[in-house]
Design a protein that fits this description.
The protein is mainly beta. The protein is 14% helix and 45% strand.
């Protein structure tokens, strides 16, 4: 049958291509002229991109790179994810050791990270900042392993957070001083005295305005403007116990504050509006969670305000098993008042071989939970079904990083374990354990203490025997 136009031929070939595996499609595009022309069609690659990665930013890809944007994006992302899945030394990534600190690394954050939604992820060069007990903040080019700047020496630092989107980092030190630093120059922007030798910090933004909440060792939460660090409010959350649990919900309407030092005290949900715009006539909007104590907590990233917690099974606190409870948080308004509503969604027991209280909890999507305790890593759905479990490490897991593509665990055994997400027909979302990344010599190091990731790299801190901690950066490229 005769074709009415050459476009009909291309349409047929595109339909055929939609059944090809990615590798087959790439090879087929070189077979003949017709197939090559069809393989260059933007809407073919656009469809494949959206089928594989539904979050692709269509407007950016369509406008910034022209006709070949979709193919360029697909091939680059496909090759990058293949390398991140296989993790072969000498070919899939480069490893850089970043030395310079003369003390313990107490914080490591991406100053400018490579997100999975960037249309130019292949050319983006991430930078990280680290804080140390040596009293310095340092910025690093992780692909080159080079230091970009170093702050003046001050009191030993105890923590660090990044101001997401603001290009600044915020630190706390052993004297209770909180400081904001410009990420480009390393210049100090402002400071605030919390009068607390140990601080827990949370940076968040509401409608383009940045804020910093600081949990103190006296049990209070101070909320400041950022980066000017002007005090807006102060609220006692757990009197006499250190606030070391501080999280913001994805919609930024709620702040969870609590302590891990006392398993009797319940964490509290606070209204961010009450903290950032306090009213002289009304008490801050606050509600205790209906649980006893809290070992770990996380907000589910794809829900506006869904909170998961690991806590004691009962009031006696003698039962070795822990309970994982999930709550949805909302506000209930009447004619004259408003109150925080905490509705329990699910509750189930979690039993670990180890009796450790060092439990790590992260969320994926709207209904998947990643739990680490001791050497174990587990994935649960909200119904309490164990989707998969791993014991890839021979020493305790110290840190977990979860993103849309993978999970990375850091351990005292001086290794990082990389696992990638997959969808199982029967169990839903699960993980595949892929490979280890090694951190150096056991004679010189005591293991990894923290790991952070962006879309194309992994950075982890190594605790050194000589107390001069090292950062290890693993960069993948397409």
């Amino acid at each position: 049958m005769a074709m009415e136009s050459p476009y009909l031929t291309n349409d047929c070939l595109i339909h055929i291509f939609s059944f090809f595996h990615e590798d087959d499609l790439i090879r087929a595009s070189y077979v003949c002229k017709e197939w090559h022309e069809a393989a260059e069609t933007p809407w073919l690659w656009r469809g494949m991109c959206l089928q594989r990665w539904g979050f692709c930013n269509i407007s950016l890809l369509a406008s910034e790179h022209g006709k070949k944007a979709w193919k360029h994006y697909f091939l680059g992302r496909f090759k990058l994810e293949l390398k991140m899945t296989e993790g072969r030394t000498g070919g899939d990534y480069i490893c850089k050791s970043m030395r310079g600190h003369t003390g313990r690394v107490v914080g490591c954050v991406y100053l400018a990270g490579n997100t999975h939604q960037r249309p130019d992820f292949w050319s983006f060069n991430p930078t990280v900042c680290s804080a140390s007990s040596d009293g310095t903040v340092r910025a690093w080019d992780i692909q080159q392993g080079a230091q970009l700047w170093c702050s003046p020496v001050q009191s030993p630092l105890t923590g660090m957070v990044a101001e997401q989107g603001g290009g600044r980092v915020l630190t706390s030190d052993s004297s209770g001083m909180v400081k904001a630093w410009d990420g480009q120059s390393g210049q100090e922007v402002s400071s605030y005295s919390s009068a607390s030798p140990q601080c827990t910090m949370l940076s968040f933004s509401i409608n383009g305005s940045y804020f910093l909440s600081v949990g103190t060792s006296q049990g209070s939460v101070h909320t400041l403007t950022s980066p000017s660090l002007l005090k807006l409010s102060s609220l006692v959350v757990c009197d006499t116990f250190k606030v070391n649990l501080l999280l913001a919900s994805p919609d930024k309407k709620w702040i969870l504050a609590g302590t891990r030092e006392n398993i009797v005290i319940s964490p509290k949900v606070l209204s961010s509006q009450s903290l950032t715009c306090p009213s002289e006539d009304e008490d801050p909007l606050c509600q205790c969670l209906p649980i006893s104590g809290c070992y770990a907590a996380t907000f589910l990233p794809s829900q506006a305000a869904r909170l998961a917690t690991v806590h004691c099974k009962d009031q006696s606190h003698t039962h070795p098993n822990k309970v994982l409870s999930v709550f949805d948080i909302s506000v209930k308004k009447t004619r004259y008042t408003s109150e925080i509503q905490v509705d329990q969604v699910e509750r189930f027991e979690v039993v670990f071989d180890s009796r450790t209280s060092d439990i790590l909890l992260e969320g994926k999507g709207s209904s998947t939970l990643v739990v680490a305790a001791g050497q174990e890593l587990r994935v649960y759905n909200l119904k309490g079904q164990l989707l998969c479990g791993f014991k890839d490490h021979i020493q305790p897991i110290t840190s977990v990083c979860v993103d849309s593509f993978r999970v990375v665990t850091a351990s005292k055994d001086l290794s990082l374990r990389v696992l990638t997400w997959k969808t199982d027909r029967d169990r839903g979302l699960t993980l595949d354990s892929r490979y280890h990344l090694l951190g150096g010599s056991h004679s010189l190091s005591r293991g990894f203490t923290q790991v952070v990731c962006d879309y194309s790299s992994i950075v982890a801190s190594v605790e050194a025997v000589d107390r001069k901690d090292v950062l290890k950066a693993y960069s993948f490229s397409s």
